[in-house]
TrEMBL record:
Highest classification ranks of the organism: Eukaryota, Metazoa, Spiralia, Lophotrochozoa, Platyhelminthes
Protein name: GLTP domain-containing protein
PANTHER family tied to this protein: GLYCOLIPID TRANSFER PROTEIN DOMAIN-CONTAINING PROTEIN, GLYCOLIPID TRANSFER PROTEIN-RELATED
One annotated GO molecular function: ceramide 1-phosphate binding
Location of the Glycolipid transfer protein domain: 34-170
Amino acid sequence: MPDGVFDLRQMTNHFSQSIVGDDINLTDYCAGYKELSTFMYFIMRDVNQKLGILSDLRNPEKHPTDFCEHFSTVQKMCTFEANQYENNKLKSNSNATMGSRNLLRLHRAFLFIIDLFERVCSDPPEVTLSQLARTAYDESLAKYHPWAIQKACDLAFRALPYRQTFISNLVAMQALDGDLTTEETCRKYLIETSIPILRKVYQITQDIYAQNDMLDLP
């Protein structure tokens, strides 16, 4: 079951605010991901740990202000950490901070989440949530996972609720005094507002990693 309350509009706003030109603000990105994790609980393995690592790197109580600034945006972080790697492998003498590596895992899962939301909104109603998740996984995350994790994910997908239950849970979590109180309004908001914003955040992040040759970090 979902852990906590998922505010669809707040999640979308966090990710929208994270877009700073051709860069992504990490505080807003992580806030959006944290909100997202309360609903997409079934694929959020180790998410809180990764978000915690990124938060610690930006924590002025743990690091000097100029150090924290390196982790304020995706571009600054990748630029700062790029010399810690060679051919996408950590240098043996490098004092690794691992921000880019942890964000990359979140970034890969982000595409799965976007694809699943899109399929839930658009695919024929007879297709089950398990089938939608399996297809989205095969087209996004599967290539990064060893066989054992793929099998574990397959078992997790088989245990997913009915698609209608998934949708009903999403609707039930929205504010009663807001405008996202029906399946149709939530679906329309996802298709017209949320998904385009999430895809833009994904693409900007993807481009930054590609520019820094960091898409295949170990």
